[in-house]
Amino acid sequence: MKILVLHPGALGDLILSLRALGALRRRFSHAEITLAGNLDYLRVVSHGYADCLASLSTLPLHRLFVPGMLTADDRLFWQSYERIACWMGAGDREFTRNLTGANPKTLISCWKPVPGESRHVSQIFIDSLGTWIGDPNVPSPAEIRLRPEDRLSAEAWLRQQAWTPDRAVIAIHPGAGSATKRWPLARFQALACEIVQGLGADILLIEGPAEPGLARRVAEDLPAAYIAESLPLGVVSGAFSLCRGFIGNDSGMAHLAAGLGLPSVTLFGSTSPEQWAPRGNRVMVLRDIRDCTPCETGLQGEHVCLGNITVERVWAALKLTMDGQ
């Protein structure tokens, strides 16, 4: 049996679907599962959940959205899979008609929470597979299975930064896809200093392409900081596996750290952690919406929720999540 899963989501979205993918893997243990999405993400986090990986851009998707455009070769492609789980195109009548017409054993589902939704996104992914997987009570959380080569690459990179294995490292990601999701930079700077003084640890600062210069600003007053500027995701995941803890905003990096089992503190502002919190055995989520009009009432206004979270509270949460290491 061949099963195709179409997943257009970003890094955090993909990680939140791992429980559902794991359930699909268990239910169809002898099937060949192909997972199509962003290959940069898939190569790092989907090991053990799929047999084959594909880029969405290589599939004949665009004609599914247009009436009368499906070719005979398109139909043969979609029919080459016994089942298709599709986490895109939900609500598009033409897309649904074309894909299910080509392959009736297709589930097209929306996984993003709608207003009033109480389920966590990881549960929405599971529920979207319906009767395919049977019991919806899937064990939580899912595990990201680190590739050995990623850990070796990360260790080599850290050694190039003058790190030695006897030095404890705490990872910090001060960025996020949206500036409104970022805890104040000055507090990240103060927190990093607290960690260095209190734990004697070095700091690994993660910086993505959308946040140039952010990590270097946090590192200005630190005696030892390793700045990961747009490193390949595999190297970042390997570096996380060498760290003792993680602090960051609501972002894909927080989901990556949690999925790797890293003691983590994630800071939430306007986004609801009830739906979007990272899943992990050692994850603490901090949110404080007091006096934040948009969060409390849904009305327009400036968010102050992230500003309510103090350095002292984050520092205490980090120590608590790290207890027992």
Describe the structure.
By secondary structure, the chain is α/β, with parallel strands linked by helices. It folds into 2 domains: 2-132, Glycogen Phosphorylase B (Rossmann fold), CATH 3.40.50; 148-322, Glycogen Phosphorylase B (Rossmann fold). Helix content is 37%, strand content 16%. The protein has 14 helices and 11 strands. It has helices at residues 11-16, 18-27, 39-45, 72-79, 93-102, 121-128, 148-160, 185-199, 214-219, 233-241, 252-259, 273-276, 293-297, 311-322; strands at residues 2-6, 32-37, 52-55, 83-86, 106-108, 169-173, 202-207, 225-229, 245-249, 264-267, 283-286. The strands form 2 sheets. Strands 8-7-6-9-10-11 form a 6-stranded parallel β-sheet, sandwiched between helices. Helix 11 links the parallel strand 9 and strand 10 (264-267). Helix 2 (18-27) packs parallel to helix 6 (121-128), helix 7 packs across helix 10 (233-241) and helix 8 crosses helix 14. It is globular and about 65 Å long. The model has no long low-confidence stretch (mean pLDDT 93).
Give a quick rundown of the structure.
The protein is an alpha/beta fold.
Any idea what the shape is? globular
Average predicted confidence as pLDDT: 93
Oligomerization category of the chains in this entry: single chain
Biggest sheet strand order reads 8-7-6-9-10-11
Break the fold down into its secondary structure elements and pairings.
Elements: E1 2-6, H1 11-16, H2 18-27, E2 32-37, H3 39-45, E3 52-55, H4 72-79, E4 83-86, H5 93-102, E5 106-108, H6 121-128, H7 148-160, E6 169-173, H8 185-199, E7 202-207, H9 214-219, E8 225-229, H10 233-241, E9 245-249, H11 252-259, E10 264-267, H12 273-276, E11 283-286, H13 293-297, H14 311-322
